[in-house]
User: Fold this.
Amino acid sequence: MSTLNNTELAVQWFDGVHPVARAATIRLEGRHLTLQPADGTAAQDYPATRLRWPEPLRHAQRQLLLPDGGVLACGDAQAFDAWLTGSGRSHGVIARWQQSTALAFLTLALLVGVLFAGWRWGVPVAADTTVRFLPEAVDERVGQQVLRELDSHWLRPSRLTWAQRRAVFDHFADAVDTALDRRALPRLTHFDLQFRQGGGPFGANALALPGGTIIVTDELVELLQDQPQALVGVLGHELGHLKHRHGMRLTLRASAAGLATGALIGDFSIALATAPAMLAQRSYSREFEREADDYARTLLRGAGIDPAVMVGFFERLQQQRGTDEHSAQGAFAAAFSSHPADEERKAFFKK
Ligand SMILES: [Zn+2]
Assistant:
């Protein structure tokens, strides 16, 4: 048994059906393993991620398990190792793959893709493309980290009574249900309402975190106490951000390099640690805000609420800004109140 060149390896192939081994050569290219039987029958192609690599023992025969139940055996461990190295792999890398979950591997591959694509086509496009393939569990992890950071540094526990929280939740959930029943919304976007005291940096605000958490401040609930339908609109806007995964797209755009580095070294803590500050400092683009407003308007209409209720909200917010410049600006640009221009948005909801 010997290597034909650096990237091809002669092996014995047990196809999992016939008891007799057949001679074959294998080649590992990119994410595929190609198996070429020596008898000239059709070559087989396997995704590298679905291969199983039993722990290599120094003097033992090397084996590779195929996803279809087949086994590749190589009696020449040295040749096998040389082939792996020649294919740009090493046992170290493979051992690490084995330890990581399929999710982590997928994330790694995608985020390395972001780094490459970011260099090739620009980060925003790459980030938006990547997020479509990114498992939502990653959003949740980022969102949980952001919430922990916000809770430990900026937000305080809500002072609202459970009855007040319940009323806000029920009102919003009823509107979403009605819109879903009438098929105004295609499908339910997962959300979880969290109430917090906003204080100086937040004021009256709502904020959607990647993964489905919507933070509502006590100040916002109080501001719209007599306008529950406007509050539905504001929460609908945040649900729109979740539906379009704006938080995750923003996170990826801003920290694609950090995340890709994290993926390479198998540790996302650096990227996760910077996510809260990043979400706080960067504002959503107007494009994102329009998409979220559009979703809110669709939801309101679907729930039988006149979208013009939002105009009252913008006016009240403007009044508040007039009297309290500090809380109006707020440190958290990503939150609801900052953009785009109120006049433009008023016109949008009146349409
Ligand atoms: Zn927004």
